[in-house]
Amino acid sequence: QVQLVQSGGGLVQAGESLTLSCVASGDGLRTYAAYAMAWFRQVPGKEREFVALIAAWSGHTEYSDSVKGRFTISRDNAEKTVTLQMNNLEPQDSAVYYCAANKDGDVQLGPRGYQYWGQGTQVTVSS
Fold it and tell me: Cystine design at 120: which of 12, 80, 95, 96 (Cβ 3.0–4.6 Å)?
């Protein structure tokens, strides 16, 4: 099994910053660098939405248009951690954020491409 444990999140005002982290562990975890890692978010009544990903090995990153230029995804393979730095937050960024891992390492923009998920963490941005 592979477990993803998230930390961070909370309530902030518009324009402020937050950092989300996600640590991987478990007996089933292979070389962490081989996993593509991503962040998704979801609001009630809507589908889970892609936010950002960082590919296996190369560290290639991709972002949704709504967060490009404001959010930064990074990974520390030694610490088995992926981080989402969120700057200049807007009320429409409010959601439950999930980290996800894809054991195949390929770039996937949809949630079905990920086999492992964190527990979710609430981010609320007030105007």
Answer: 96
DSSP state of 65: T
Please list the residues that pair with 63 across neighbouring strands: 52
d(CA 15, CA 23): 27
Q: For the segment 41-97, what is each residue's pLDDT rounded down to a tens digit?
A: 999 999 999 999 999 988 899 999 999 999 999 999 999 999 999 999 999 999 999
- pLDDT at 30 exceeding the cut of 90: no
Q: Phi/psi class of residue 54: alpha, beta or left (left: φ > 0; alpha: ψ in -120 to 50)?
A: beta
Sign of the dihedral defined by the CA atoms of residues 86, 90, 92, 95, in that order: positive
At which residue do the structure tokens 């709504």 appear? 66
